[in-house]
Amino acid sequence: MSIQNNRLSPQEFENNFSDIHPPFEHIEGAVIEANRCLSCYDAPCTKLCPTSIDVPLFIKQISSGNIKGSAKTIFSSNIMGGACSKVCPVEKLCEGACVYNLLQEKPISIAKLQRYSTEKAIAGKWKLFNRKPSIGKKVAVVGAGPAGLACAHALSLQGVDVTIFEKEEKGGGLMTYGVAAYKVTPEFCKNEVDYILSVGGIDIHYKKALGTDITLPELQQKYDAVFLGIGVGIARRLDIPGEELEGVEDAISFIYNLRTTDFSKTPVGDKVAVIGMGMTAIDAATQSKRLGAKEVTMIYRRTENEKPCTDVELDLAKLDGCSIVWLANPKEIIGENGKVKKLVCSKMKLGEPDASGRRAPVDTGETFTIDVDMVIKAAGQIPFEELVSKSSLENKSGKISINKKSETTLKGVFAGGDAVNGGKEVVDAVQAGKDGAKGILEYLTS
Amino acid sequence: MANLQSNFLGIKSPNPFWLASAPPTDKKINVIRAFEAGWGGVVWKTLGSQVKNVSSRYSSLNYNGKKVVGFNNIELISDRPLEINLKEIKEVLKLFPDRAMIISLMADNDKKSWHEMVKKAQDTGAHGLELNFGCPHGMVERGMGAAVGQDPEIAKMVVEWVMEVATIPVITKLTPNVHSVVPIGRAVIEAGSNGLSLINTIQSVTGIDLDTLVPSPNVGGQSAFGGYCGPAVKPIALKFLTTLAQDEKTRNTPISGIGGISTWKDAAEFMLLGASNVQVCTAVMISGFNIIRDMCDGLNNWMDEKGYKNLEDFIGLSVPKISKWEELDINFHIVANINNEKCIHCGLCYIACEDTSHQAISIEQGNPYNTYKIKEEECVGCNLCKIVCPVNDCITMVEQRKGAEYLNWTEFQRRGLPLNDH
């Protein structure tokens, strides 16, 4: 047993990481699907979209052959509509709300239709938006993830001159670095960022991290307002013996490596345990399998009823051959020569509901042990608490506090996205970015 | 099993489904394929002085992704030599003696030409003739087709010429490109026509290519008015049919119904409004001859369910059910009812009523599903909500009479009863 890379042939890697939701190849397919749409009034799909995309309208525009209008409808509500069409858990958002579900019929393939229009727009570099002339205001946006980009785009449209500071080499945030490769390609992420920036009025500086390369007071001084879209970054520790052993990795860095190097150069164990049952846990488990791991076991301390991922995602892991162990909590990682050898788990049972309203897992005192050579931690990410606290921002365990106008406790400093909510969907971050832009505009013009 | 055997003017066919005079009945190869598929009869594509057709002949109207809601053509009568047509007709008659063979004719506009044409057609042994007084394009400009069918006097004269030599039943095919088909119908019956058929196609422009700006069909950058048919024309055909089925001078003459018939349901509707049999064209041009299987089967099953043993048992049954508006009962009143068990909360009923009708549906906001309720006091019973609802029987119209007695508009006015106050 060992952790090693290059387990599969180039062809196998290509197959394993190809798009799991293939697009419509031809307009005919898109139009047939578009014509199934009933064009509901006060549409449930729109209501369950955090960015309130006018779904019936953009679908009608596909069916009438107005693809340009369709793309503009989407991007007007969600400038990352392309990304969201690939990574949104639509089964619990728009498609989950589609009234066809109530007829026990397949819901409209909203994501696939959205992808059709947005991909055409991004590939064709369609100029759908014109920014207003500069109003002579400068705003700094920290973080080029979904929240930061959405905020920057919305501000730029209104004539604000925006400067983005991004700690990585590329924009897109978790879209670029933290999502399963079979959902989005690096090329798509790059093209999408370029497309968003093509509206003009946005300068972007990469490899500039808050707290090291730039400081908040400096930004407050140089700019009329600041938006913090810094996300969350650090994987939650398990705080169990053996966590420092070689072979214990956090899911975010595992996926980061996989997204930033060739698949063949990403090492993975023979027997992998993934701790957690969120979207990131699924992404880590399925991709371990797709990199060639022989056995992947997902460990979750509650039951299927409480799981944070969607049924669709869980099915994906099951279809990839991952084993699922419910009601199990890691207790100790046992090593040999400094390397992971076994994982000891406590058997759990459900007790009283906790703060989240879900029944809390309680240790039964019994344990079981599985042989593993790699443990991937995906039990959630924690905010940049130290960075946030150092900047004198009021926060809750690192989650930045904001008011209804997205403003933090520091005047002229706004925030949104994962940095505020602790980690939600891309689409939630986009809306937070829009909200931030709205608050900033009010602030700048009052 | 009901009996689908049809007898139209003494012309027998195993079912009431004939193929209309059109491209599918242009030559032996097509007609044999049609008969092999099971069609009851054909009206052979119109014979006349040989013509030349253009290239690019058809165009269609598509709607919400559904292709060919309406169909349009600028093809003329048969462009094949008359002698070949006559020879092939004879050959088909020999191969399928149990099927109806009608020949459509459109001679040059003089007595001698018509006489010659009728005689040649009859010599084939065909069972009947159909006079093409309906073609709306190409032939009109030559004083034929609809140019004859639009003028009762001319139509009457031509039928009289035909009847002088006709030895087999004669059907006159009427054009819908008139305000009313009744005057023409009366005229040709007076002249001796044994039966009528309708409708021929309606003059149309189906659409324009928004790149080239040329209407369809595009013949080298130009188009021309064509003849419109297909599902979209059915309601118009049914209306014309009803006027003939109700007119005292025409109602006793057998009518062959034509116009957008695609299914057995369409056929049953034509026959309920007085057609003795039906003719089909567009539907086979879109789907091939095999659609005859469901047409026969579906009609048969429906007849069994309704207890009709023969076609005659239901032909014309709906004719008395269309009256003048003035005779409708104003006291009859219905209101919509939404079955919330079936409702899928699409809101289509609400927005249709709110935007375009009587604001008779209330909305209770929900996330993500709203609840919709009928405001009975505002509902006029227009049916719109029921029409737009995607779920069968979710919205029903419930009778709530305004009064026990039958009351029509004439009587309503006579009594000076109050009109709406808002």
Structural summary, described in words:
- The complex is a heterodimer of chains A (446) and B (422).
- Chain A is an alpha/beta fold.
- Chain A is built from 18 helices and 17 strands.
- In chain A, strands 3-2-1-4-17 form a five-stranded parallel β-sheet, sandwiched between helices. Chain A has a five-stranded parallel β-sheet with strand order 6-13-7-8-9. In chain A, strands 10-11-12 form a three-stranded antiparallel β-sheet, with no helix packed on it.
- In chain A, helix 2 packs across helix 4 (55-63), helix 5 (67-77) packs across helix 8 (110-123) and helix 14 (279-291) runs parallel beside helix 15.
- The radius of gyration of chain A is 22 Å and the shape is globular.
- The mean pLDDT of chain A is 95.
- Chain B folds into two domains: 6-321, TIM Barrel (Alpha-Beta Barrel); 325-414, 2-Layer Sandwich (Alpha-Beta Plaits), CATH 3.30.70.20.
- Helices cover 30% and strands 20% of the residues of chain B.
- Chain B has 13 helices and 18 strands.
- In chain B, strands 3-4-7-8-9-10-13-14 form an eight-stranded parallel β-barrel, surrounded by eight helices. Chain B has a four-stranded antiparallel β-sheet with strand order 5-6-12-11, with no helix packed on it.
- The relative contact order of chain B is 0.11.
- The model of chain B has no long low-confidence stretch (mean pLDDT 96).
In short:
In chain A, 37% of the residues lie in helices and 20% in strands. Chain A is an alpha/beta fold and 446 residues long.
- Structural class of the helices, strands and pairings of chain A? alpha/beta
- The CATH class of the largest domain in chain B, by name, is Alpha Beta
**What is the CATH homologous superfamily assignment of the largest domain in chain B?**
Aldolase class I
Instruction: Tell me roughly what share of residues is in helical segments of chain A.
Output: 25-40%
Mean pLDDT of chain B: 96
Number of helices of chain A: 18
Q: Taking Cα atoms only, what radius of gyration of chain A do you get, to the nearest Å?
A: 22 Å
| Poorly predicted tracts of residues of chain B | none
* Total DSSP E strands of chain B: 18
- The total tally of domains of chain A equals 3
